[in-house]
């Protein structure tokens, strides 16, 4: 991690997840840019959010270039569609070599699409199952 | 060959018909249940109802047995996922995707989709070239548009009409492959061949040289 430079973080998809994570990251002094198809989604951002917003299609490479994807340190794909998140994450990693690419994926069976690509996949489904199993079995169970 | 067609209506219908006619084994996957039934009954093929981006749906459609998977969904992202699941999970050799955004052609190729076409791009090429240059019959960019295969009609107004090939000031590394005269192929082995009016010429060149080729073979500016 770079110590002196502020990290540039791009979040694509301003839903509950995207807006919250963007708000939290902006609170700890990161350079934030959040993208969503719908301008009105940005109302979900907390009032303390100090980053930038951009209305548009996050799979469009012209848009991604205009918001400086080449200089991004972290990209978070958090739209509500798995397929779109996969496309965005792979563009960020393969075309622009973004160091840290994180994508949300509901359908764990699609994880294979991002295998061996150095993309971090976070699956709400898998995380919930782990938590439920912890409750039921009283211990951590491998998922 | 075993071919799986995922998504699409008119395109899938036409492809199914022509692939079946050439003796291939076709299976379709579609989100439209009624349409699946119609296709399955109409062509006597296996129709699987479901979302083709989901690995279990592709598995049910026998993806593991497929030689080729063709993704025709309306969403580019869905077509990418279909091709990647087919390739990575089911080890399908050939994956083929249709995309809307021409920018996605090079992205999908980089992401190991074997063949990518964009109807938007084909249409824009056609408009750009065929409307502007009416003696350009065919225009086909290859290898990420590094190379262009083109076919010109030789008009009385073409600069090169009645010229010998060796006398034409062609850019380096440009190949005049064939001359088509009276619907017969004339292989152009020697430089002494003469281009006659109403010939058709097939030319291979680097895309940076296409402007020059155009100015030689096109009768306008």
Q: What do these coordinates show?
A:
Helix content of chain A is 32%, strand content 20%. Chain A has a single domain (8-137), classed as NAD(P)-binding Rossmann-like Domain (Rossmann fold), CATH 3.40.50.720. The model of chain A has no long low-confidence stretch (mean pLDDT 92). Chain A is of the alpha/beta class and 143 residues long. The longest helix of chain A has 14 residues, at 82-95. The two termini of chain A are 30 Å apart. Chain A has 4 helices and 6 strands, in the order E-H-E-E-H-E-H-E-E-H. In chain B, strand 2 (25-30), helix 2 and strand 3 (46-49) form a beta-alpha-beta unit. Chain B is elongated, with a radius of gyration of 22 Å. Chain B is an alpha/beta fold. Chain B has helices at residues 10-21, 33-43, 55-60, 76-88, 103-110, 119-130, 210-217, and strands spanning 2-6, 25-30, 46-49, 68-71, 94-99, 115-118, 136-142, 147-153, 175-181, 184-187, 200-206. Chain B is built from 7 helices and 11 strands. Chain B folds into 2 domains: 2-119, Rossmann fold; 133-217, Regulator of K+ conductance, C-terminal domain (Alpha-Beta Plaits, 2-Layer Sandwich), CATH 3.30.70.1450. In chain B, strands 3-2-1-4-5-6 form a 6-stranded parallel beta sheet, sandwiched between helices. Chain B has a 5-stranded antiparallel beta sheet with strand order 7-8-11-9-10. The A-B interface holds A 59-62, 81-84, 86-87, 90-91, 94-95, 107, 109-110, 112-113, 115 and B 53-56, 75-78, 80-81, 84-85, 88-89, 101, 103-104, 107, 110-111.
Task: Please write out the topology.
The complex is a heterodimer of chains A (143) and B (221).
Chain A: E1 8-12, H1 16-27, E2 31-36, E3 52-55, H2 61-66, E4 74-77, H3 82-95, E5 100-104, E6 119-122, H4 124-137
Parallel strand pairs in A: 1-2, 1-4, 2-3, 4-5, 5-6
Chain B: E1 2-6, H1 10-21, E2 25-30, H2 33-43, E3 46-49, H3 55-60, E4 68-71, H4 76-88, E5 94-99, H5 103-110, E6 115-118, H6 119-130, E7 136-142, E8 147-153, E9 175-181, E10 184-187, E11 200-206, H7 210-217
Parallel strand pairs in B: 1-2, 1-4, 2-3, 4-5, 5-6
Antiparallel strand pairs in B: 7-8, 8-11, 9-10, 9-11
């Amino acid at each position: 991690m770079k110590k002196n430079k502020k990290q540039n973080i791009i979040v694509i998809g301003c839903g509950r997840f995207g807006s919250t994570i963007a708000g939290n990251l902006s609170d700890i002094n990161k350079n934030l840019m959040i993208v969503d198809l719908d301008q009105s989604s940005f109302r979900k951002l907390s009032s303390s959010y100090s980053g930038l917003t951009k209305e548009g299609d996050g799979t469009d490479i012209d848009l991604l270039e205009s918001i400086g994807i080449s200089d991004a340190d972290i990209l978070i794909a958090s739209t509500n569609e798995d397929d779109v998140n996969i496309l965005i994450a792979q563009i960020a990693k393969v075309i622009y070599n973004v160091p840290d690419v994180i994508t949300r994926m509901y359908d764990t069976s699609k994880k294979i699409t991002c295998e061996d690509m150095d993309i971090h996949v976070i699956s709400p489904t898998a995380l919930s199952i782990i938590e439920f199993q912890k409750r039921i079995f009283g211990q951590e169970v491998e998922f | 060959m075993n071919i799986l067609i995922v998504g699409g209506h008119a395109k899938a219908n036409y492809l199914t018909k022509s692939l079946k006619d050439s003796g291939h084994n076709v299976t379709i996957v579609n989100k439209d249940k009624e349409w699946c039934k119609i296709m399955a009954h109409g062509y006597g093929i296996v129709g699987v109802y479901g979302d083709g981006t989901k690995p279990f749906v592709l598995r049910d459609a026998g993806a593991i047995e497929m030689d080729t998977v063709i993704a025709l969904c309306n969403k580019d992202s869905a077509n990418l996922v279909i091709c990647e699941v087919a390739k990575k999970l089911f080890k399908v050799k050939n994956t083929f995707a249709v995309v809307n955004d021409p920018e996605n052609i090079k992205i999908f190729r980089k992401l190991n989709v074997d063949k990518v076409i964009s109807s938007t791009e084909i249409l824009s090429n056609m408009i750009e070239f065929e409307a502007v240059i009416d003696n350009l019959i065919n225009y086909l960019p290859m290898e990420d548009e590094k190379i262009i295969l083109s076919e010109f009609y030789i008009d009385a107004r073409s600069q090169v009409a009645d010229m010998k090939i060796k006398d034409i000031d062609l850019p380096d590394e440009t190949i005049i492959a064939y001359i088509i005269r009276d619907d017969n192929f004339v292989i152009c082995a020697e430089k002494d061949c003469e281009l006659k009016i109403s010939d058709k010429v097939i030319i291979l060149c680097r895309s940076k040289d296409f402007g020059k080729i155009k100015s030689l073979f096109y009768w306008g500016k």
